[in-house]
Design brief:
The structure is a single chain. This protein has 392 residues and is an alpha/beta fold. The protein folds into two domains: 26-274, Aspartate Aminotransferase, domain 2 (3-Layer(aba) Sandwich), CATH 3.40.640; 278-391, Aspartate Aminotransferase, domain 1 (Alpha-Beta Complex). Helices cover 42% and strands 14% of the residues. The chain contains 15 helices and twelve strands. It starts with 12 loop residues before the first strand and ends in a 5-residue tail after the last helix. The structure holds pyridoxal-5'-phosphate (PLP). Residues 19, 77-79, 104, 106-107, 155, 158-159, 184, 186-187, 207 line the site of pyridoxal-5'-phosphate (PLP). Pyridoxal-5'-phosphate binds at residues 19, 77-79, 104, 106-107, 155, 158-159, 184, 186-187, 207.
């Protein structure tokens, strides 16, 4: 697969799959065929065909992530899944939810909100900086556990820092301490091998519209069997099967009012596309591209990287420091001037942001990217840093 299999606008250098990943044309077409089917006979589709179709769509996804399809339910995105977990895990005054200092802003907000409601406390554990040894990360993170810890929330692949975290080791240690773990995994699906039965977490929240190349508004929530009888919906609807099937815990989540589920029904086509290309090949090619970008950016800026060993910590996405500090740069929705310039002058989409008072750029590469895209970014950065002191 290459750029010709996607429908990206000509002239756009898209290096931000990590935020929003476009889907191949084939996947978009399968999605449209499901919409056509719904429009041709809505009663037939929604009340008879939908539930079996959802089951069929879940099977290849469950195979991909190494668990039974009965442990998963489709949701619109990882955020949706995280909100279900926040409603499900009981919390009370002075109990604690433990997160790392690399977690996604919206996820932090979900737990701050939930803790405010219940009187519980968010505990943010600082991780080693720079990240060097995954075992050291586990050790440092678990120092944040106390007898009041009621839940651990941790990214599988972090957003700002683009690091792959040793979630399996954390889950196994937490299990020995009887602390449930919710993994925030939207970047991991497709980007790295995932085996949920082996990881043995309690919840896994994922989006399929990033690295798996499914269409937008597609995700899943994994719920370990030990939680399935008490998982609570974030949206209340009928709570039963619409086609009169045997009751299951997923009923609460399949039907949350009338909606368009064509995106999740097209997930098997996204899996097929990447499988045909070859999972290893996809992962190697995209890693090589970001690694090439990382080397060039590091030699351009001369700044100490957040992570030295990209082979251990990064897959298809790498975050690198760039010169300059932007005040209030962590404010959501505010675009860094360098990001704006890269788009306005060079038609390059790449996020630039402030994290812990340092300025970073994150490059993501998927099958539609080539070395030319990365080199275009590098040439643009060279010009920006050389000519326009406002950006440094
Ligand atoms: C680590 C992490 N968690 C959660 C999310 C939210 O994903 P979504 O917008 O698909 O719900 C993101 C989005 O970039 C993310 O990077």
């Amino acid at each position: 697969m290459d750029r010709s299999d996607f429908t990206l606008d000509d002239g756009v250098t898209y290096l931000n799959n990590g935020s929003f990943g476009p889907s191949p044309r084939r996947v978009q077409e399968v999605r449209k065929s499901w919409i056509d089917r719904l429009e041709r006979q809505p009663m037939q589709f929604l009340t008879r065909d939908l539930e079996p179709a959802l089951r069929d769509a879940m099977n290849p996804l469950a195979d991909l992530v190494g668990t039974a399809s009965t442990n998963m339910t489709f949701v619109d995105n990882a955020t949706f899944g995280m909100n279900i977990v926040a409603r499900t895990v009981p919390l009370s005054r002075d109990e604690e939810v433990l997160l790392t200092d690399h977690e996604y802003g919206a996820v932090m907000r979900v737990w701050r909100d939930r803790c405010k409601e219940t009187g519980a406390k968010v505990v943010v554990q600082r991780l080693p900086d720079p990240l060097t040894d995954p075992n050291e990360l586990v050790e440092e993170f678990l120092k944040g556990v106390t007898e009041r810890t009621k839940l651990i929330v941790i990214s599988h692949v972090t957003s700002a820092t683009a690091a792959i975290f040793p979630v399996q080791e954390i889950c196994h240690a937490a299990r020995r301490m009887k602390i449930p773990v919710c993994i925030d995994g939207p970047h991991a699906i497709g980007m790295v091998p995932v085996n949920l039965d082996v990881i043995d977490c309690d919840f896994y929240c994922a989006s399929c519209h990033k690295w798996l190349s499914a269409t937008f508004g597609t995700g899943f929530l994994y719920v370990a069997p030990r939680w399935q009888h008490r998982v609570k919906p974030a949206i209340i609807s009928w709570g039963g099967s619409v086609s009169g099937q045997e009751p299951s815990w997923q009923d609460e989540f399949n039907w949350i009012g009338t909606r368009d589920l064509s995106g999740v029904l097209a997930i098997p086509e996204a899996i097929r596309c990447l499988k045909e290309h070859g999972w290893e090949r996809f992962r190697n090619e995209t890693h090589q591209l970001v690694q090439h970008g990382a080397e060039r950016i590091s030699s351009l800026t001369g700044l100490d990287p957040l992570i030295n060993d990209h082979t251990t910590w990064n897959a298809s996405m790498i975050t690198l420091p760039v010169p300059g500090i932007v005040e209030n740069g962590e404010q959501h929705g505010r675009r860094d001037p360098l990001q704006n310039t890269l788009w306005n002058r060079y038609q390059i989409e790449v996020p630039v942001f402030t994290w812990k008072n340092r300025r970073f750029l994150r490059i993501s590469c998927h099958l539609y990217n080539t070395t030319d895209d990365v080199d275009h970014l590098l040439n643009a950065l060279e010009e920006c840093f050389a000519k326009d002191h406002k950006f440094v």
